[in-house]
Amino acid sequence: MAEHVKCLIIGSGPAGYTAGIYTSRADLKPLLIEGYQPGGQLTITNEVENFPGYPEGSSGPIIMDDIRNQALHVGTEMRTGMITKVDFSSRPFHCMLDGEQEIIADTVIVATGANARWIGMPSEQKFRGFGVSTCATCDGNFFRNKTTVVIGGGDTALEDALYLSQLCTKVYIVHRRDQFRGTMALQKQVLQTENIEVLWNTVPVDIVGEQKGFIKKVTGLQVKNVQSQEEQTIAVDGVFEAIGVTPVSEIFKGQLDMNEQGYIITQPGTGRTNVPGVFAAGDVQDPVYRQAIIAAASGAVAGIEASRFLLEN
User: Fold this and answer.
1) Which candidate in 7, 95, 106, 135 is catalytic?
2) What Rg value do the Cα atoms of the chain yield, rounded?
């Protein structure tokens, strides 16, 4: 038998949990589907220093547990599982949980996030969170006055390198081609920055590091020149992979407007999508910032918008 709810929240990162807090306090009695990685990307981040309310920093899992518990405390119902199909052609909206349970919702908040693209090097996952990162803005401060390397050649890689150059003694850029793909303004700025060195026509081979008990430490990056086939290991303390992210929006294609990369398009300053009653929050609709605090704020916006929508309709 189908289940009817006022508000269905799809996703459980900072955006989803915060949307749960706001819709619960508005007495919408939301149902939040957590997916199979409750807490989202922040749960695989060991140290977080830039989320408000934690003056000494904290681990990603602890922060997400705190936000989750707050959402539970105010009444958000949560279930583990995946929304596998949606029909937004008319209200109320019809969604399928794990391909079996039909959920009918008066409003829907999409907060499915985005997944960072990983290169797939042999030791990449071993040192993930211990010197290997996909977010320079999040983790750059841990490498102040150290040496880092950015892998990539698009705008994200160039922006990450410039950001790190203000913190680090030395920043390498490893790029497989002989020219960048990023905008010319960023290219010029990177090439004019003294402590940035570009390794052209070069691809990463593996992460080099050491482990003593539970303590892991990156010490270098093994790279190969694609023309000469020569390999070398550059000494670095941190590796930043900047080859892009993929928004988790596949099941919404054809129903919600998206850009070429698959990010759900929302009206500026709101969480409204092209379908009245369906809202989007967090990284699934944010191709620019991709920060936990901004995702949480957009979850609040979507929650308020959903509450107002139901009052007006």
Assistant:
1) 135
2) 21
* 283 labelled catalytic: no
Q: Which residue in the block uniquely carries the two structure tokens 């390198």? A: 161
Q: Strands 170-174 and 196-199: what pairing? A: parallel
| Catalytic annotation, pick one of 7, 95, 106, 138 | 138
DSSP secondary structure string, 259-304? -TT-PBP--TTS-B-SSTTEEE-GGGG-SS---HHHHHHHHHHHHH
Helix (H, G, I), strand (E, B) or coil at 16: helix
Query: In whole angstroms, what is the distance from residue 82 CA to residue 96 CA?
Result: 8
- CA nearest neighbour of 298 among 275, 255, 267: 267
Cβ atoms 251, 244 nearer than 8 A: no
> Per the residue annotation, which of 139, 237, 283, 286 is the catalytic one?
139
Confidence of residue 204 (pLDDT cuts 50, 70, 90): very high
Q: Is the pLDDT of residue 42 over 90?
A: no
Q: Is 95 a catalytic residue?
A: no
Q: Model's pTM, two decimal places?
A: 0.80
- Is position 135 annotated as part of the catalytic site? yes
C-alpha to C-alpha distance for 45 and 58, rounded to whole angstroms = 10
Q: Closest Cα to residue 22, out of 75, 93, 95?
A: 75
**Distant-in-sequence, close-in-space partners of 82: CB < 8 Å, separation ≥ 6:** 33, 35, 36, 97, 98
